Amino acid sequence: MAVVWAAAIGLLCGAMACGNEESPLSDPFVPTAIVTEIALPTEVGSPGGTPLSIADQIPPTATPTPVVPMSEYEAFQAAITEEYLARCRTFVRNRENAATYADFLALDPNNMTDLERVIWAEEIGRNEYCRDYWSEPLSARNADKRNESYRNNCYKNLWERHREFERRRGDSGYALRFDQAARIANWVEIPGDVLLVMTVKPVDLAPPVIELERRGEEVDDEWVGLSRVWPGNEYEVGPNPTSSSSYSACSRYYPQLFTGYWIPLDTATTRQTIEEQLARATPTPMPDEMRIWINRRDRPVYVGE
Prior knowledge:
305 residues, mainly alpha, two-stranded antiparallel sheet, 14 helices, 2 strands, 47% helix, 1% strand, globular, disordered N terminus
């Protein structure tokens, strides 16, 4: 098992630079940021002026492009998608009035704006069968998107879990050597284009580890405690490992990292609401230690004995 995880970790590091919050209100003290040319043949006259043969005058028949058969897995996934769409149409037909259902049928789930996905999620809910209407799989066009309203709470939660780890390290007999909050914080900063090409993504690596911890089975030292920090997945897409963590701001901020899907949540009105709340709030000074940790890059994960 350790060899398998070591290989996965190597792949993961090689690709890198190496509350359940119902309100997206950001804490005011947390910073907002960080053709190939084809040479055409020249015409060459036939020797002795011999005319072209009839065969030479017949344009060649185009060679058909070979059809690559769909793999068994791809065919299964396509069948699942088709069934989900059919079940979603039935769900909406039974739930909504005729006018809303007609509007819904006019939608193309493969060509919707983020705002349309947010609005329809509010209308029909985030039903599993309707996932293609409120989310879309990780791709080049959405890899760099984030729900910025949840960024500050994401980092605040990770800081709190980091501090909890530091306190528990001081307990007698408690010898954790890996800071999983720092690991998650580093993962949150993986650029979208890097995440897209990673052979082993965090969303592939974490669930099996969390399941082992849930069953009380032995886990490699490097991953002990990951289940207590991994953000909860409240959506009906992607892996949803049993985790004691109720924190979900990070999975809202960067859903592609934790679910494998882009799930738009932000709109102009949500950002307006946050700005109005921040304008009325009294800023709370950020402790220097917290500021340094949040703004740091490549936070140390291994902390020794």
